[in-house]
Every structure is written in structure tokens, then in C-alpha cells.
Amino acid sequence: MATIFWDTKEIEMTIDLYYTPGSAPCRLVLLVAAALDIQLNLKLTDLSAGEQFKPDFLKINPQHTVPTIVDGDFSLWESRAISRYLVNKYGAGSTLYPEDPIARAIVDQRLDFDLGTLYPRFGNLFYPQIFAGAPVDEALLKKLEEALVFFNTFLEGHKYAAGSNLTLADLSLVATVSTIDAVGFNLTPYPNVLKWFQLVKSTAPAYEETNGKGIEEFKNFITRLKAKSEL
User: Fold this and answer.
1) pTM metric for this prediction
2) Are 225 and 130 in contact (CB under 8 A)?
3) Cα gap 199→193, rounded to integer Å
4) Into which CATH architecture does domain 2-90 fall?
5) Which residue in 23, 79, 172, 178 is the catalytic one?
6) Which of 15, 65, 74, 161 has the greatest number of C-beta atoms within 10 Å?
7) CB under 8 Å, gap of 24 or more: what pairs does 149-152 form?
8) Could you read off the pLDDT of 37-54 as tens digits, one per residue?
9) Which residues pair with 77 in a beta bridge?
10) Gap between the terminal Cα atoms of the chain
11) Under CATH, to which class is 101-226 assigned?
């Protein structure tokens, strides 16, 4: 168990976060907490050891997924729901999740695009390769490329994913795009995505601490899987 502090302005109430650092959804929650200066009590959850199926964890989250937070007597899972909750409860006035209905709708659309299109298309293509040694599926590759074209188009004429300010949309999407980048996928055909990626890496609070280190964990995990498959 560890506690992470971003600076001297942390919120006093400690929130438990059950997580695994290589997970893109878990890294999203870390990014949001850093942006809001929220103190987290980090509870590393070893999925490979089945810790998510322990009775105590199932009482908190019967769906047995990470990330999961416990804030007082309240537990919540699904990273984008957690992100919205943290802003709504602890980030009054934050531009991460604007109150204007149109601006918020754009953020929600980008979050839903990540959840329903970009991240699943990445997972459908790469996870069979990573976990089962499957060959590249050209049809799934084209679907991921199409999703990146969509995102590249969304960014045309915009500084960030949902406008001129860093929002939850950027933090969600950067967790996914950095994972896509980590497996060696070529992002150069998507110049707006590349430019945005560099911007978010340099402007998201505590990016390296929250997402960068998790990406290294993800890369190390892939390396270990490849080593086992070659034995």
C-alpha cells in the first residue's frame, strides 16, 4: 500500500485506488487525480494472481475490475465514471470537465469515442498478439487505422481533443494513445495526433509519474510475455 502526493495542495480525504500501473484505464485515474491535486491511497492489485477475485474486493466491486476507488463509504469502478466523479466532487470550476452543456458534450463524445472505438480497436488488434501470439489481423489493423484517422480529424484546428483547454478527454485519450505508441505502432501518418500527443505529455500534471511510469510497466510486461513464449 502506498500513498501518492502531487504537491502541497492535496485534498485531505484519502481515496483508495485499486489499480495496476500498466493498465490504461488505471493510468487515466492517476492522471485525473494529479490534475486535481487529489491524494490517493494506492492499492496495487495483482490481476495475474487473482487478487481481484478475493472476497473483500468482490464486496467493493462485484464486477472485479480495476480501476476501482473507495471514497469513504462509496465505491466506484470504470475509469471514465471515476474521472467524472472526481471532477464533480473535488474539482468545482475545473476546466477538465466544463459546465457549459455544449463544451461538456464534446468532452463526453471524445470520452465515448475512446471507450467505444479507439481503445477497443487497439485491444482487438493487439491483445491477441500480445497474449496469444496471434498474427496481425489486417482487417482489425484497418479498423484501428480508421479510428486514428477519426481522431486526427477531430483535432484539426484544435489545440486539445475537445477545444483549447486540457480536459478529461485528453487524459483518457492520452492513456490510450500512449499505449498504442508503446507497442510500436507508427503514429506518423496522423500528424495532428502526434502534435497533440507531445502537447499533452508536456502539459498534463505529473504526466511521467502517472502515465509514463505505467507505460514502462506495460512495456516490461510485454517483454516478459515474449520471453516466456520463446522458451
Assistant:
1) 0.91
2) yes
3) 10
4) 3-Layer(aba) Sandwich (3.40)
5) 23
6) 161
7) 149/190, 150/113, 150/117, 150/118, 151/113, 151/118, 151/190, 151/192, 151/193, 152/190, 152/191, 152/192, 152/193
8) 999 999 999 998 999 999
9) 68
10) 34
11) mainly alpha
